[in-house]
Automatic annotation (TrEMBL):
<protein>
    <submittedName>
        <fullName>IclR family transcriptional regulator</fullName>
    </submittedName>
</protein>
<keyword id="KW-0804">Transcription</keyword>
<feature type="domain" description="HTH iclR-type">
    <location>
        <begin position="19"/>
        <end position="82"/>
    </location>
</feature>
<dbReference type="Pfam" id="PF09339">
    <property type="entry name" value="HTH_IclR"/>
</dbReference>
<feature type="domain" description="IclR-ED">
    <location>
        <begin position="83"/>
        <end position="266"/>
    </location>
</feature>
<keyword id="KW-0238">DNA-binding</keyword>
<dbReference type="InterPro" id="IPR036390">
    <property type="entry name" value="WH_DNA-bd_sf"/>
</dbReference>
<keyword id="KW-0805">Transcription regulation</keyword>
<dbReference type="InterPro" id="IPR050707">
    <property type="entry name" value="HTH_MetabolicPath_Reg"/>
</dbReference>
<dbReference type="Pfam" id="PF01614">
    <property type="entry name" value="IclR_C"/>
</dbReference>
<dbReference type="InterPro" id="IPR029016">
    <property type="entry name" value="GAF-like_dom_sf"/>
</dbReference>
<dbReference type="InterPro" id="IPR005471">
    <property type="entry name" value="Tscrpt_reg_IclR_N"/>
</dbReference>
<dbReference type="InterPro" id="IPR014757">
    <property type="entry name" value="Tscrpt_reg_IclR_C"/>
</dbReference>
<dbReference type="InterPro" id="IPR036388">
    <property type="entry name" value="WH-like_DNA-bd_sf"/>
</dbReference>
Length: 268
């Protein structure tokens, strides 16, 4: 047993239980963040994280004591707490790249008329962190800031997965089963086929695999260790992505992704 003291409170936990507790807390915080604007119930969060309702409630109550989540007294719904805002504002100084990508997103949206997005890799997922709406009146509304999707799903997750080493791709596909939620088009053979196509061109195409008629394209942005840490993507209706235009959009995405990569590495 070990005791841990943080500010004015102390808790004791078995050493071998620490990773499990941390995983559960992390899963709950991500589930709360993914909830609609009004928040989520304890039961919904329990189902989303695979936790029994009493366990979810106990952990959420402890998080609320620390200001990491907040509960509406009238509805009982949970939302992210003020302490996360303070922590996030400090972390943003090191990790946030959205402001450095704003003009690039604007350029993509202006030149193409499609909506442009920046997504960041977070473990086995991507999270959309910034967007710029295009001028074309018909738009796809599948992607939005805050949305989390598994690697291999949607253009950002696919292009990041495609640029990982084969070993990491294989390990990921071995531990994740995507067809139950995302359909047969996200089986391991289907994803591997799209990975090969992406590696040939450098950019990826998502031909309406999440929502029929909603297409997307993406290009990876690399960190200083040459790892695919972010992705730029364009989304729109199917009619805006005919074969003769995909090459043009792909090349534009690659140029802007390279521009952002250099910028994040200290270039202009």
């Amino acid at each position: 047993m070990r005791s841990y003291a943080f500010t004015e409170w102390t808790y004791t936990v078995r050493v071998d239980e620490r990773p499990q507790v941390i995983r559960r807390v992390g899963a709950l915080l991500r589930a709360v963040a993914a909830a609609p604007g009004e928040g989520a119930s304890t039961s919904d969060l329990g189902r989303a994280t695979g936790l029994a309702r009493p366990t979810a409630h106990r952990l959420l109550s402890s998080l609320a004591d620390e200001g990491l989540v907040d509960r509406d007294r009238k509805t009982g719904l949970w939302s992210l707490g003020p302490e996360l805002y303070l922590l996030g504002s400090q972390a943003a100084e090191r990790y946030d790249v959205t402001e450095r990508a704003r003009d690039i997103l604007r350029d993509l949206a202006r030149e193409t008329g499609e909506s442009a997005f920046l997504s960041a890799r977070r473990g086995d997922e991507t999270v959309c962190v910034a967007s710029e709406e295009g001028s074309f009146p018909l738009r796809s509304h599948v992607l939005h800031v805050g949305l989390r999707l598994p690697l291999g799903v949607a253009s950002a997750g696919l292009v990041i997965l495609s640029h990982l080493p084969d070993r990491e791709v294989g390990e990921y596909l071995d531990r994740r089963e995507l067809t139950e939620r995302w359909g047969d088009e996200h089986s391991t053979p289907a994803i591997r086929e799209r990975i090969e196509a992406t590696r040939l061109t450098g950019y990826c195409v998502n031909p309406g695999l999440l929502v029929q008629g909603s297409w997307g394209m993406g290009a990876a942005v690399f960190d200083a260790a040459e790892q695919p840490a972010w992705a730029l993507s364009l989304t729109g209706v199917e009619s805006r992505f005919p074969p003769e235009r995909r090459g043009e959009l792909g090349e534009l995405l690659l140029r802007q992704a390279h521009r952002l990569t250099l910028r994040l590495r200290g270039g202009r």
